[in-house]
Amino acid sequence: DTGVSQNPRHKITKRGQNVTFRCDPISEHNRLYWYRQTLGQGPEFLTYFQNEAQLEKSRLLSDRFSAERPKGSFSTLEIQRTEQGDSAMYLCASSLVDGKAGANVLTFGAGSRLTVL
Amino acid sequence: AQSVTQLGSHVSVSEGALVLLRCNYSSSVPPYLFWYVQYPNQGLQLLLKYTSAATLVKGINGFEAEFKKSETSFHLTKPSAHMSDAAEYFCAATNTGGFKTIFGAGTRLFVKA
Of A91, A102, A110, which is closest to B94 when you measure between CB atoms? Predict the structure, then answer.
């Protein structure tokens, strides 16, 4: 098990371009999360999947953001028409839900850093 | 809405000194609480978690945290700091639905030789 893998690790793009990030979770985990982290802040929840179903989206996830998890395996986060305010670290995490849903522990990837010029 | 507050964005201690990182949560129902650590260029890693089994929770690397309902606090401590403890620490809580983990802003720990 190689943990949670995220690609690319760094992305520099020009304003208005589209970018896509990929996350490969731990294979036996059934939940996958996307978070955004900006400098000096903790991770902010964006969205999560239970298997292939996207069950919750934050208000932070504007119409320019879309996340998918086809077949309940890897996930992609696409940002269309990027803005400078989208510059951040995008974190992916996965977990295995047990009997106590709130006690599930998140395993994070190292993140994908986006810089929008 | 549930929130997590970490007092102090930066804490500096000498090697061998006590480490105390403060965390308060806001919730009408005691949530599940966590401490995560983030080393440079690495993902967040779980240090310890509180799930209502015991109020004093022991984690990895000699860290522990005590849940105090009356103070809505979950402070992280370590008796003796090591240089390798220098990192950013995040307190977190799950929402009552159990699917969203909410993080504090983080506290960066510096350890002086």
Answer: A102
CA A94/CA A26 separation, integer angstroms: 7
Q: Tell me whether residues B98 and A109 touch, CB distance under 8 A.
A: no
Name the 3-class secondary structure at A98: coil
Instruction: To the nearest 10°, report the CA torsion of A46, B100, B55, B85.
Output: -20
User: Cβ contacts (< 8 Å) between B88 and chain A: which residues?
Assistant: none
d(C-alpha A79, C-alpha A36), whole Å: 12
Q: To which H or E segment does residue A65 belong?
A: strand A65-68
Paired tokens of A81: 């028409």
Number of Cβ within a 10 Å radius of residue A34? 27
| Nearest CB to B103; choose among A43, A109, A110 | A43
- Measured in angstroms, the CA of A117 and the nearest CA of chain B are apart by 22
Q: Can you read off the two tokens belonging to residue B100?
A: 């969203």
B48: tokens are 């310890």
φ/ψ of residue B71, rounded to 5:
-105, 0
Q: Which pair of structure tokens corresponds to residue B66?
A: 């005590």
Residue pLDDT tens, chain B, 113 long? 678 999 999 999 999 999 999 999 987 666 789 999 999 888 899 999 988 778 899 999 999 999 998 999 999 999 999 999 999 999 999 876 677 899 999 999 999 99
Please judge whether B44 and A106 are an interchain contact, meaning their C-beta atoms are less than 8 angstroms apart: yes
Length of chain B equals 113
